[in-house]
Design a protein that fits this description.
By secondary structure, the protein is α+β, with helices and mostly antiparallel strands. The protein contains 13 helices and 8 strands. The protein folds into 3 domains: 176 residues, Lysozyme (Orthogonal Bundle); 70 residues, LysM domain (Membrane-bound Lytic Murein Transglycosylase D, Chain A, Roll); 43 residues, Membrane-bound Lytic Murein Transglycosylase D, Chain A (Roll). Helices cover 39% and strands 9% of the residues. Strands 3-4-5-6 form a 4-stranded antiparallel β-sheet, with helices on one face. A two-stranded antiparallel sheet has the order 1-2. The protein is elongated. It starts with a helix and ends in a 7-residue tail after the last strand.
């Protein structure tokens, strides 16, 4: 118990320790790793990102905890405010002058946001199908996904990991959540109950978030699908938050029952990609469009911006 309490005290006092040390000397890489290895391991358990990658990125992005953002704002990964951020802010020159960055009361928020940024953003989801102990594949995957513009980004991460043997923190860690690809994979479902059969349907029916759906075929229309499933057209349109004149594309998800008011428990948030609409997010997770608007205080016609956290189960805290 004494060792456990010491770890907790160390974790919560990390910002104070950094502030105190920076008054006399810069924190060394070894000191930074010692301070944040437990936090990185915890994030690995909760998200699936290798602790070695988290620590290496933290070292690189924060200058081993000596950057202004990490010292004054506990922001170890240079995470910008984006539209959904309702917490404290700090302004710092980056790509442009005086850009808005998130300010956290403790490092935990920064580490958690970094994990969410990777896990809940579509372009990084393929990383979670890699072995959590394959830090080289993760480093190259981050570069491939466009995490950084530096052509040597992967090599720099790998060098930090190997010089400091950070890979030891990836071993023996039990990851508590499945990869996003497992959570979101189509699952075959039984046909919905109908009072009468109109057409003998030979379609696969899938399920997501407990809601059944089909994939549109060439020349499909909402009207045709409504007839096949003996459902009124207005209901099919309502299920999909679609207009009557909407043209279906081959392979498009079409729900044949109402979407849920909330996303699955393992999908509390989604990080919007460039150009992604709220309707697309609604269809992807089988959540009502009206719910996403309510949770994120968005009006009809308002769309998320790149990097914005879209809350999927509860209202965003203002």
């Amino acid at each position: 118990m004494k060792h456990g309490w010491f770890s907790v005290i160390l974790l919560f006092s990390a910002p104070l320790a950094i502030m105190a040390q920076t008054a006399t000397h810069a924190i060394t890489r070894a000191e930074y790793i010692a301070l944040y290895k437990d936090l990185a391991i915890q994030q690995m358990k909760e998200s699936g990102i290798p602790a070695s990658i988290i620590l290496a990125q933290g070292c690189l992005e924060s200058g081993n905890g000596n950057s202004r953002l990490s010292v004054e704002a506990n922001n170890h990964f240079g995470i910008k405010c984006h539209q959904s951020w309702a917490g404290e802010r700090i302004y710092h020159d980056d790509d442009e002058q005086q850009e808005c960055f998130r300010k956290y009361p403790s490092p935990e928020g920064s580490f958690r946001d970094h994990s969410d940024f990777l896990r809940y953003r579509d372009r990084y989801k393929f990383l979670f199908d890699l072995k959590p102990t394959d830090y080289k594949a993760w480093a190259h995957g981050l570069k491939k996904a466009g995490y950084a513009t530096n052509p040597q980004y992967a090599e720099r991460l790998i060098k930090i990991i190997e010089e400091n043997q950070l890979y030891v923190y990836d071993t023996g860690v039990t990851i508590e959540v499945p990869a996003p690809s497992v959570i979101e994979a189509p699952k075959l479902a039984e046909m919905p109950h109908r009072k009468r059969a109109v057409i003998n349907i030979s379609r696969d029916v899938y399920e997501r978030n407990g809601v059944r759906y089909i994939l549109a075929r060439t020349n499909d229309t909402y009207e045709k699908i409504a007839i096949e499933y003996d459902v009124k057209l207005r209901r099919i349109l309502s299920f999909n938050d679609a207009a009557a004149n909407t043209i279906l594309q081959k392979g498009q998800v079409v729900y044949i029952e109402a979407k849920k008011r909330k996303a699955a428990k393992l999908q509390p948030v989604h990080i919007a990609d460039k150009g992604e609409t709220l309707w697309q997010i609604s269809q992807h997770y089988a959540v009502k469009l009206s719910s996403l608007q309510k949770f994120n205080y968005l009006q009809n016609g308002q769309e998320p911006v790149e990097g914005q956290a879209i809350y999927m189960r509860n209202k965003m805290k203002k």
